[in-house]
Model the fold of this input.
Amino acid sequence: MTSEGWLRPNSHIMEEITPACLGRDTDGFLYADDFNDYYYSKLNASAESAYVFLEGNQLPENWLGVRKFVIAELGFGTGLNFLVTWNEWVKKGHDHQHLHYLAIEKHPLQPESLRILLEQYPELAEYAHELLENYPSLLTGMHTIELANGQITLTLCFMDVAVALEEIVADVDCWYLDGFSPVSNPAMWCEKLMCQIAGLSRPGKTTLATFTAASAVRRNLQAAGFVVNKRKGFGRKREMLIAIYPESAAQTESLSPWYSLPVAYNFNTNTPDGERTALVIGGGIAGCQSAWALAERGWKVRLLERHTTLAQEASGNKAAVLTPKMTARLDWGERFYRQAFLYANRQLQRLKQAHNDLQWEACGALQLNHSEREAKRWAVLGDRNLPEDFIQLLNAEDAGQVAGLPLPFGGSYFPNGGWVNPQSLCEVLVRHENIEVLSDTSALTLNKVGEQWLVRGEYEDLAPADAVIIANGKDIRRFTEAVAVPFVPVRGQTSYAASTDITQSLKVTLGHEGYMTPAINGQHIFGATFERENENVALSSESDEQNWQQLHDHLPQLASQLKPVGSSHAALRMTTPDRYPYVGSLADNERYFDDYADLRYGRVNQAYPPATYMTGLYVAGGFGSRGLTTSALSAALLAALINGEPLPVEKSLYYKLHPSRFLIRRIRKNRE
Done:
């Protein structure tokens, strides 16, 4: 039984990565100094990549005629194998196909080193450029990148290979084993690791190829259940290994039964033309992101919004801040927020290229050391050697230089942070050929009819849908009250004030206990209040005064410029007891209580059946005040669950986002 989401992770999972250390030989070739080994052959490396990994895995033959294909690589290195595969996919893939490429790298290359190494392959320059444009900050975790207009999803797992193989949730179609040689890096070729690879493989389907023919590697693969053969090696190499995971092999389940994956949509049995239909309830940021993620995968999506226009409630703020949430020591909360932040930034860049009217400014975000607690966190962050393209730890003078005006504190500066107008983002997301927005339409009831869901509106029944996503903010409780997904409503109100000659110099968003934006159309947005047990969303002058006073407590000189103050926006934000949103399938409560009753006696390791869900019914909610940062990655996770794709987050994060997590806790505590 794997570790549960409620347990603290092992410390090695949370270690920050160390970038690759490069050396240069007498011929000028760069190599990995830590392993005293080269990233590629000096003799026609791209041809070797195609021979060993494409031909060795019978590609492109094996991906022809399938909707999605999953490749996993051990040892991303320069990305050459990925780029060679991308090139072949473009030539011999099809528009309706999707390539998922997962690559594990413990010591990733710095962007400039990667650029230099890839310059040697001008025939791959177009792909290399797009990879470099989207290459993530060198932070521990899984970084999911959409490339080739959404046809290719690259997930870079920057972590130790054994940890990554424990955290990946995917059915892999073929493996590229391209780590440094068994002599240089024996841990990467051990039997335990090969068994982990087998656990992610599909019996009778999954193939494997590697440049090495070492007898220890062959024996370890065979011990893991692979049928291994030798093949002529490339160039001067005599032999290499290829393998298949046989039909007779047992497929292991690495997920806890109560968090098992929902049954993915069956592409072949619904409608004759294979059309997939989804209905999303709620036209805020969570609903629009969910609709977009499915539309990108070819689903026909109807988005229901009870107001005339989108983003009128919790997503109605005129300017929301995009920034990660950092902790003194890396934990799963920080990991989720920073991976979501980087994913959201890449999505916004892509959307901005297609829609110039997207109101987004990556002006930078500065979290001030306004309190003793924040100052202590800032000091500890300085010991973690985090990359400067992600975070810069500034003293008061440098913070003032970045901000454009004097500040009394230093702080944590995120160069890629900024602000977004949520309504603008929602409008851009739904401008998709596969999305139809039904405004002034309320969803009253949900009923299962056969294999589809019927949504009853205020005036008529809507056409049935294969999948329904409930993403309607504070009204989500109407459809989930029978399911153990507790919510905590929090009222938030933002305020505005006209910019002055002094305040218009502000160039970044400022964070303290609240936040303040640069001048947007002559106005600063600031706040927001955090009011529990207050569900009155009427605009309040008392809340405006509270926002101003909070700003004045930390930045009195700046606050003194901001009078008079007006009410900007107020709404209820739905958060959760543990501050992680709910993303995934909704459970059948009665079956959970029956199937997992023995958990209350601490019987964790006995055999349990997989989770029973309300098939085709999903939830995306509880995003609280950080939905702008987390909703894009959460929607990608939801779409992956629905489509049966590799998950874009670690298994441990999937557990923490699972809608049934509190239900399982209730069962374990013997409280029904």
